[in-house]
Amino acid sequence: MRERIRDFFLSQAQLPLETAILLIAGLMATLTGIFLFPVGTGALPYYENGLYGLFLFIFALQMLTLGKTPFGDVSRSIPVIVIGIGIAITGIVTCFIPDLLSHIPRLLLFICFAPGGALLLLQMIFSKDKLRNWLRLGSLFRHLIFSCAAVYLLSILIGWLVLMSPKIDVAITALFVLTFGIAILYLAVVLRKVYLTYPEAETKDPGTGILSTDKMLLLVIGLFMVVLGALLIPVSLGQLPFAGSAQLGLLMVIFSIQMLALGSTPIGAFPRSRAMILVGFVFAGLGIISAVIPGILVGPLTLLIGLLNLFGGAISLGKMVFSKNQTPAGSPQTVLSVLRRLFISQLALALLSIMFGTSMLIPSLLPGLLVGVILFANGCLLLYLIYILISLDKVIKQLSQA
Q1: Residue 300 CA neighbour count, 13 Å, CB half
Q2: Where do runs of H (alpha helix) occur along 97-130?
């Protein structure tokens, strides 16, 4: 029995990236809907910008990794990536700095939810390869029709609720948000079954070959660190307010996406097993709660993230010490040059990770201004690391064609 349970959790998880992102979005709406009931009675605090920032971040993530916009599927071209980056930055700033962007996040979410949901519904009804085709393909696709229609219709309603949120009763909002979350979870489960039954239906190449999924997620983390570091500088000088709980929450959600998509964690890469997927969802749940309900998980998450960064940096340093002389003999000079830059970048990232983790565990150790500089440098190094990895891929491709 124990071996069967162990084999179940350690077996490879079959979870497409689109399904993973939808599950996080569904979990986000479901948990928010549940917590809004006690929020409405005054039993819990509520940080609206945290929820808005998370949703904008999820919309951006779908665009950047899958080429899926609120208005339909597109090629993951450079303009789409630029727009996705802009939305991601807007979501990050919305989470971190209360009311800095005023009504912009609310208007963006209204556009994504209401007109976006309406357009997706019309596309499903009138597109030749959707509704009419799905009706001929059996019961599984009837579930897909129902779940898509439910999500699109509720999306339109949620868009109007976001736009008119101060005027709507909290209990009514909670009910609709909870229903929306359940509908998204249902769609995610149906889509997973569709992709497992018909693998050709999954979008595996959403456009540009410049950035793979792992590099795109690295780009998102780099942007997160750059924006966080840049904002912490005026925050430490008392010029801006700061939502520390939402910052921790968004970071936990980013960790969870890495786990679900790649099996990657702050302390290293692991097989993408069912156990890793479960841990990823736990991280997502904790992050969502921290972003939406301020202050409730600040202590535990600060400790957890601090330890993860500290041990992650230390483990990376240890690996580099043992692998520094493992460069293949006779490697071309171009490869050696790129590998040298890669090693230096990874070394600097490991040291910065240790410094950041230590500053979280011992808040008085470093001034806030210096922590902001460390995070900004960390983000810039991650963006530079993407450039190095792209350069390395190009060099290897050229050598293989020579």
Answers
A1: 10
A2: 104-126
Report the alpha-carbon distance of residue 1 to residue 359 in Å, rounded: 44
**pLDDT (tens digit per residue) in 173-187:** 899 999 999 999 999
| 19/25 Cα distance (integer angstroms) | 10
DSSP code per residue over 275-297: HHHHHHHHHHHHHHHHHHSTTSS
| Angle between helix 274-292 and 298-323 (nearest 10) | 140
pLDDT digits (tens, 9 = 90+) for 7-62: 666 677 778 888 989 999 999 999 999 999 999 888 999 999 999 999 999 999 88
Nearest to 88 by CA among 117, 53, 120, 112: 53
Phi, psi of 42 (to 5 degrees): 85, 5
Question: CA end-to-end span of the chain, whole Å?
Answer: 54
If you average pLDDT over every residue of the chain, what do you get?
85
Structure tokens at 34: 């549940």
Which helix or strand (DSSP H or E) is residue 189 part of?
Answer: helix 170-197
Q: Is the pLDDT of residue 126 over 70?
A: yes
